[in-house]
Specification:
By secondary structure, this protein is mainly beta. The chain has one domain: Beta Barrel (Porin), CATH 2.40.160. Strands 1-4-5-6-7-8-9-12 form an eight-stranded antiparallel β-barrel. A hairpin with a 4-residue loop joins strand 8 and strand 9. The chain is elongated, with a radius of gyration of 30 Å. 23% of the residues are buried.
């Protein structure tokens, strides 16, 4: 009778290690690689100022700024998936640099914010975002300065000539909505519209304590914008 009971006992003992292994938690998965969106596109944004005469360039040629209510912008964007760092889904940290194509009046803006991405279908997503904005508007004063570079090992180098620029910084807040069209590959197309409200107008263009603002001239960047960009999701 003991001989008949022995084989089942041995089988039970042999099965214990296998059962223990099956109950062990799976090994932690390797962290996913950094998830980033990079896109390049164009947009039309608010830019309002009256026509004015700007200071002439360093060789005396006249410069002007035409009356306008909007401007074309070249936009470069980078978005980082926050789900890699926090317990959130489809939330992105956004950074967009806008270069306004405005001739002698030079304007750059940076928009930093967050965007929630909502899937509408397998290939289409809706983005809802808010952002803070900082912009610099500037123009040349016609005055030049000489920048003497440090002397390298081979001896002194010629001085470089640089035109002074009068500028003013603007700050604001805004929101945007976008449609993201996925192609089944890393490439995507983004349609975007938004609104940014700046806290003030640029009406004091200064450098080295001197105000170069033409009489009655001011620049406003507050208003709507819309654009199209093409990007890659890495």
């Amino acid at each position: 009778m003991h001989r008949l009971a022995l084989p089942p006992l041995l089988l039970g003992l042999l099965a214990l290690p296998a059962k223990a292994r099956a109950e062990e938690p799976p090994p932690p998965k390797d962290s996913s690689p950094l998830k980033v969106d990079l896109d390049l596109g164009g947009s039309r944004g608010a830019l309002e100022h009256p026509a004015t005469t700007l200071p002439p360039n360093p060789i005396g040629l006249q410069r002007t700024a035409s009356d306008r209510a909007s401007a074309t912008r070249l936009s470069l964007g980078a978005r980082l998936a926050l789900s890699q760092f926090f317990n959130v889904r489809s939330l992105w940290q956004t950074n967009v640099l806008d270069w306004y194509l405005t001739g002698d009046l030079r304007i750059f803006s940076l928009r930093v914010g967050v965007e929630k991405e909502l899937a509408l279908s397998r290939r289409v997503a809706l983005g809802l975002g808010v952002h803070g904005a900082a912009a610099e508007a500037s123009f040349g004063t016609g005055e030049t300065v000489f920048n003497a570079p440090s002397i390298p090992d081979t001896g002194p180098a010629p001085d470089s000539v640089q035109e002074l620029r009068a500028s003013q910084w603007l700050f604001g807040l805004g929101g945007n909505v976008s449609l993201l069209f996925l192609t089944g590959s890393p490439l995507y197309v983004r349609l975007q519209a938004g609104f940014t409200q700046y806290l003030s107008k640029a009406n004091h263009f200064e450098t080295r304590g001197r105000d170069y603002t033409p009489e009655g001239f001011s620049v406003s960047l507050s208003g709507p914008s819309a654009g199209l960009s093409v990007g890659v999701r890495l």
